[in-house]
Amino acid sequence: MEKQQKKLQQELNKVVQSKEVIERNIHAYDEDVKWQLAEPGALMSAKNYRDKKALPLVEKLKEIVKNLTIKCVQLA
Predict the structure, then answer these.
(1) pLDDT of the residue at 30
(2) What pTM does this model have?
């Protein structure tokens, strides 16, 4: 019973730590320039905008979601 309680307490501590990290970083996703989609240049084509601005941001976001999913699975 004590081993089970210690294991549950450790898992709870991991969840609390993950929550704290997310809360510290949450404002960055709303405010930081690197998470904002930039305005297109005056003569930039839609394809260039997609390739140079939109897709890199989408890739960053996908990586974040993947990492968060992995963390959640590890905690479960």
Answers:
(1) 78
(2) 0.58
